[in-house]
Amino acid sequence: MKRRIFSPGAWLALLLTMLAPFAPPALARPGKGPLILSAISLQDVMNKAADNWAAQGHARPILSFAGSPALARQIRAGAPADLFVSADEQWMDDIERGGLVRAGTRADLAANRLVLIAPVGHAPRLRMGRGIAIARALGRSRLAMADPDSVPAGRYGKAALASLGVWHSVANKVARVDNVRAALALVERGEAALGIVYATDARASRLVSVVGTFPPASHPPIRYPLARLKSSRNADAEGFRRFLLSRQTRPLLARYGFIAP
Predict the structure, then answer these.
(1) How far apart are CA 46 and CA 70, in angstroms?
(2) Rounded to the nearest 10 degrees, how much is the dihedral formed by the CA atoms of 201, 205, 208, 210?
(3) Residue ranges of the domains in the chain?
(4) For residue 32, which of 231, 227, 234, 244 has the smallest C-alpha distance?
(5) From the CA atom positions of the chain, what is the Rg in Å?
(6) Which of 249, 215, 219 is closest to 155 using CA atoms?
(7) Does position 178 have pLDDT exceeding 60, yes or no?
(8) What residues are paired with 110 via a beta bridge?
(9) Which of 6, 141, 217, 249 could form a disulfide with 193 if both were Cys (CB 3.0 to 4.6 A apart)?
(10) Is the pLDDT of residue 7 over 90?
(11) How far apart, in whole angstroms, are the C-alpha atoms of residue 125 and residue 237?
């Protein structure tokens, strides 16, 4: 009998062939879905929308969530993203002025409301009108807000408090965080007695109670503009953009508490 001498490369090829049927799914290379940079306040509904899109036979979109300013910085730095969903018009305007948005693809996806929250079982009774006694209700505690100098939810919150004539009384009590979900988390953990978040964020948590809704006229309209980016190369990007704006997705947005823009 003749002995066969296999080279190291041949042995490796044989071994991989034998192991192929047992390779874990993570080693497979399915088609990649579009990369979506989305405001974190849309996290729950966007994940569900991505599931629904994938259920139609498409590759599931890759979702990246953060505050709108951080996402805008990523786009300006050259992030190879396909779609951007901002929590306000200002950051989308910034990206569009920079020539980073594909013409004709910008549209408003949804709108939201702004609410004052407290930990469950510790909600004070406050009248959501001019002169609201937030400072007194806080005592020595803090008011959790997304950064009012840059983050949309924080800017809306500051505008509302200023409109009601109480911003000056709480400005030094504000616990500034990077995004609205971080503000929600501070209140959930009892590290802040009150917080300002979107109505949809409060709805997603069982650990906070809504003290009241800020009057819509007290702050700019809360809209979520969506656009496809010039950096987009994914074949499914435009289809998913249209899917998000379609009648199919409207009931889903409503289920999570968003309103028509």
Answers:
(1) 18
(2) 50
(3) 31-111+223-255, 114-218
(4) 234
(5) 24
(6) 219
(7) yes
(8) 224
(9) 141
(10) no
(11) 46
Cα–Cα distance, 249 to 198 (Å, whole number): 20
Q: Is 83 helix (H, G, I), strand (E, B) or coil?
A: strand
- The DSSP bridge partners found for residue 114 are 198
Amino acid in position 170: V
User: Rounded to two decimals, what is the model's pTM?
Assistant: 0.82
DSSP assignment, residue 40?
G
Selected from 2.30.22.10, 3.40.190.10, 3.20.20.60, 3.40.309.10, the CATH number assigned to the domain covering 114-218 reads 3.40.190.10
Tens-place pLDDT, residues 113-127: 999 999 999 999 999
Contact call for residues 261 and 109 (beta carbons, < 8 A): yes
pLDDT 10s digits, 207-243: 999 999 999 999 999 999 999 999 999 999 999 999 9
Structural contact between residues 127 and 196, judged by C-beta atoms closer than 8 angstroms = no
pLDDT above 60 for 26: no
Q: Tell me the percentage of the chain whose pLDDT exceeds 70.
A: 88
Distance of CA 59 to the CA centre of its chain: 21
Q: Supply the pLDDT for residue 84.
A: 98
- Residue bearing the bigger pLDDT, 83 or 22: 83
**Residue 173 identity (one-letter amino acid):** K
pLDDT class of 31 with cuts at 50, 70, 90 = low
> Which of 164, 190, 156 lies closest to 41, judged by CA?
156
- Token pair 């549209």 is found at 107
Tokens of 82: 């396909």
The SS3 call for residue 31 is: coil
Which CATH class name applies to 31-111+223-255? alpha beta
Write the burial class of residue 59 (CB in 10 Å: 0-12 exposed, 13-18 middle, 19+ buried): middle
